[in-house]
Automatic annotation (TrEMBL):
Superkingdom of origin organism: Bacteria
Alphabetized InterPro entries for the sequence: RNA_pol_sigma-70-like (IPR039425), RNA_pol_sigma-70_dom (IPR014284), RNA_pol_sigma70_ECF_CS (IPR000838), RNA_pol_sigma70_r2 (IPR007627), RNA_pol_sigma70_r4_t2 (IPR013249), RNA_pol_sigma_r2 (IPR013325), RNA_pol_sigma_r3/r4-like (IPR013324), WH-like_DNA-bd_sf (IPR036388)
Entry annotated with the keyword Transcription regulation: yes
Record's protein name: RNA polymerase sigma factor
Amino acid sequence: MNPRKELLEHIPNLRAFAMSLCGSPDRADDLVQEALVKAWSKLDSFEEGTNMRAWLFTILRNGFYSELRKRRREVEDADGAMAAQLATHPAQSGHMDFKDFRVALEQLPADQREALILIGASGMSYDEAAEICECAVGTVKSRVNRARQKLAEILAVESVAEFGPDETSQPIVTPSSTTRSVA
């Protein structure tokens, strides 16, 4: 029998199987449609003489369980309340700040830059950094401290409060205490 015709003959059985898996007629129709699309696109890999029905049921079943696993990781947000709380800093200023930081980092003496990168960026302990730099732990701590002070000077950073959103983006990323309703 022609594989394309045989594929179509199994639709009622696929729908019944999909109904037994999900219990919803609409969802069952979607599952069948997804399985048929996958099967149709892979029809050239189907081996004639093998069980078409089993092949189709396997595709449908795998699709169902893949979606089930995916849904377990998702959070429903029908009214958009969770999405409304999400905000990010504008990418442009972050990109420019990073460029400024890289330029400032290059201005540090090599030993201070190395110590700062090992501790700050690589997440190593002072002991590990001291071993790599072949110096005392106190020397590494001193280099990191001097590097931080020099970076703050170069970047004109006077306090920790200067990090994060500026006055323009602060209202965007900080949730408002009042909620406006849309009529």
